[in-house]
Amino acid sequence: MDILYIHPAKQEVEARYDKFRSCPPYPFIPVGVVGFVNMLRAEGYQVRGLNLPVELLQRPTFSLRQWLKSQRILPKLVLIDLHWYEHSFGAMSVAQTVKETLPDTTVVVGGLTTSYFGEEILADFDYVDYAIRGDAEEPLRQLAAQVVGKGSSQVNDIPNLIQRPGSGQRPEQNLGFYFADAATLDSLDFVSMDWLSNQRAYAALQYSGAGLMTLRKPKLLSHWLTVGRGCVFDCIYCGGGKESHSELAGRNGYVLRSPEGVVEDVARLAKEGFQQVNLSLDIATYPAKWWRAFFAQLRNDGIRIGIYNEFFQLPSNDFIDELCKTADLAHTEVAISPLSGDEEVRRKNGKFYTNERFLRMLETLKKYEVPIFIYFSLNLPGETPQTFKKTLYLADQIGKTYPHHLLRMLNPCHTLDPMSPMSRQPDSFGMNVQFTTFRDYYDYCKGTGWEPRRVVRGQHRGFEMASRPTRIVEQMAQIWDVFAQAQQFRCFPVPRGW
Ligand code: SF4
């Protein structure tokens, strides 16, 4: 093999999920990885992929170190995603293991978290050779040519690459800049996964809905598919909003793939026996022309598959009609995040709709019997014991009106997302912020990989609302748990892990 891609767990590389009670291992691979891995393969490189948490869940004694040593041809280049901050410790643990086992191999990290903290990562973690800021396709194409030896790029000329110029000097980003446009996205293969070990188990993990998930001999398969990049919103708790994409990747709003290109990919998935496709962005917020063409072509081509879509705001009735006429509803689920029952708190956090509009929209979904997943968010700015009463009231109304077999509901705590508006301007939101550096996130992940005996919900989240100490969040969590337990639908208690 020339190149190895590894998706880290939140936990260390030797994590024993069979022995200890872990917090979520965060097994999802960022959607963009599929495109650049297939691009590198198309360039002629032998590329393999490992999803470490999936390997460890399948085989608890799996040893990355032994696996690396046992390879007949050792990779010259190892790519590790550090997109979500939850992998800050796990990604470094993988990088360290790779470097200790294969000292001559070049280790690269990339993703949104890397984009924000790239210089600090290179300054503090010797076992990472390069970091990529923003989009990775062109930087990786050139770096692979340089490292694997099939081209002649100079490392200094590679766009978006952060490197150490020399010993004692501060890491810095090369001058060249690249971001992927719509044509580039459409030219990439975001579907083929045959390079990934245990690809069917991973496809089973991606299925979202009421079906029973089995990793061995899975029957229900899904796939997260890139339908575009960026975002047009700036929800204050999110590090993947418009501003951060603009600053870290040079993107202004969405870069949309063509509906025809996405339909082609969905057709491939349906043909390969996938029951569901998870769309990487909310296509209901795309121009109506886009989703009308998308749904019409799926119907014309006779492609019927379940669709998982997360509504960033509220969809129009027209959109719901089109979705429900087209998708296989037995394998469809839509996620909606009203965040709070208090409209002011919701608006402040970036979701712009009233309870009345929200409940009316649920009536439309109910008419079609669409499975839904409702997300509140217990510890966001503005949510207090007073506003929380409105959240409970709204949750109760939903439970009383929506068919129970089609309803799931969760009210988790958020951790401070780097680059989120809340992280950048904490004073504007009445927040005290505790996580500001990569080391803060590394320590947070290292300390929260495994469930402690005593958990205070709201603790170790990197921020605290000035007038709402953590013990109040825990009190609200306990009230939610009592509410959740009394429901006949799948209403989950506030998670005790991070
Ligand atoms: S949470 Fe808000 S800002 Fe973040 S990706 Fe979703 S819609 Fe965009």
UniProtKB/TrEMBL annotation:
Its cofactor is [4Fe-4S] cluster. Residues 16-154 form the B12-binding domain. The keyword Manganese does not apply. PROSITE patterns: B12_BINDING, RADICAL_SAM. Residues 217-448 form the Radical SAM core domain. SMART domains: Elp3. One of its GO terms (molecular function) is catalytic activity. InterPro entries: BchE-like, Cobalamin-bd, Elp3/MiaA/NifB-like_rSAM, Methyltransferase_Class_B, rSAM, rSAM_horseshoe, rSAM_sf. Pfam families: B12-binding, Radical_SAM. It comes from the Bacteria. Keywords: Iron, Iron-sulfur, Metal-binding, Methyltransferase, S-adenosyl-L-methionine, Transferase. This is Radical SAM protein. It comes from Caldilineaceae bacterium SB0664_bin_27.
